[in-house]
Amino acid sequence: MALSSITPAVRRFLDSMVVPCVISTLRQDGAPITSATWFGFIGEQIIVATPAERNKARNVRADSRVSFIVDTKEQPYRGVAIEGRAEVLDDHAGELLSAIMERYLGEEGARAARERFTTRRERVILRITAERVRPWAIEE
Which is the most buried residue in 8, 12, 23, 77, by most CB within 10 A? Predict the structure, then answer.
């Protein structure tokens, strides 16, 4: 069943899944490249953080099409695949990165992790707007 938005049931599922997502972007030659990363939300849009010069950010700047998947790894299998468009956002203050880290590490863990990131390379946020949402075994 294809939907054009993230339903409340899909959002509850995503909120409950504190596991890495798998995101795919398209290289300049059109070939997909896939990686696992943490994710979070701005309203109903999904966000992921990445170093500004890495493939994900470079690819989205050239071609905004992405796919995103989160699923359980044990039975009964449940999950959601999302296809959409992403845009690159600056996160100079690190607020969005902190929100993603807090989702996975809690407030104290995120604070400690954030301190390690202050000396590393610039990070950006990919904000994904869903165009097609395909859940399986998620009850509405």
Answer: 23
Answering whether pTM is above 0.85, one says yes
Residue 105, φ and ψ in degrees, nearest 5: -110, -5
- Laid out side by side, the sheet with 123-136 consists of 32-37, 21-26, 65-71, 79-90, 123-136, 45-51, 40-42
Domain assignment present for 2:
no
pLDDT tens-digit profile of 38-80?
999 998 899 999 988 899 999 999 999 999 999 998 898 999 9
Residue 92 is encoded by which pair of tokens? 């100079």
Residues in contact with 105: Cβ distance below 8 Å, sequence separation at least 6, in sequence order: 112, 113
Domain count, the chain: 1
Is residue 95 in some structural domain?
Answer: yes
Residue type for position 17: M
Rounded to 5 degrees, what are φ and ψ at 13? -60, -50
CA distance 74 to 12: 18
- Domain membership of residue 112 as a residue range: 7-22+35-62+89-128
